[in-house]
Amino acid sequence: MKNKWEDKKASFAVIDVRKLTSNFLPMILNKAQQVNLDNGICIIQSFEPKPLYSAMNDLGFEHVTEKISNHEYRAYFYRTEIKKITYESGADMPFKPTAIVNYKAVDDELAGTVVDFWELIWGKEDSAIDLKTKLLLSMSNAIGASRFRQATRELIKAYSLGATVKEFDELFSLFAWNQGIGHFSSEIGPSTVFGVYKQIKKREKEGLDKRNILDEIMETFGDKNPDVNTLYKKKIKCCEKIDEK
Description:
CATH architecture of the largest domain: 3-Layer(aba) Sandwich
Structural class: alpha+beta
Number of helices: 10
Largest sheet: 4 strands, mixed
Strand content: 5-15%
CATH class of the largest domain: Alpha Beta
Number of strands: 4
Helix content: 40-55%
Radius of gyration: 20 Å
CATH superfamily of the largest domain: Vaccinia Virus protein VP39
């Protein structure tokens, strides 16, 4: 059934992200927050931008997507409600799946396949496992495989969705048990994911609220941190501007 607002979609502001290789999701969400009621925005991508759907829905948008060709999808988002953006809603959850851009650099169809797989795992509407638990499980698997970049991202996302310090305490105790004291001491202890855990624990003891803790963490351990970012950045000398490839 066609939505009444679809007759207006030709007037929507257009953002074409097909050639962008940087993390453009924050830019899209920022522009979306500025869209008034009964107005819309069109995103053009070389694969169906499914990861955007839930985030835009959390901001009060409906959507329809048109496949123009195998390398062009137009997603039209129409705002029917003004919703407050929060970490808990998911719309403002840290670390969107920016690594999908890496697959697009290889092949658009590959990127589309990865998006479908991502949606099956992370966007399943009738999932038997809640999102916070999935993130903690994913974090645990990543630490078990010494993928500390992924583990850091999953820990921060889980914390934004309500994971507690006590849960992290028990998880890191399990890591020492399952991985061994030697591995914990030489690999997990010096890792970025353990650094995030320590900072959260320290700042909560000092009485800082979660939102401010998350802001601090994202400043230190966000996508600006090369040990956490999933997109390639050319190594540069001090004080030189970063150029993205």
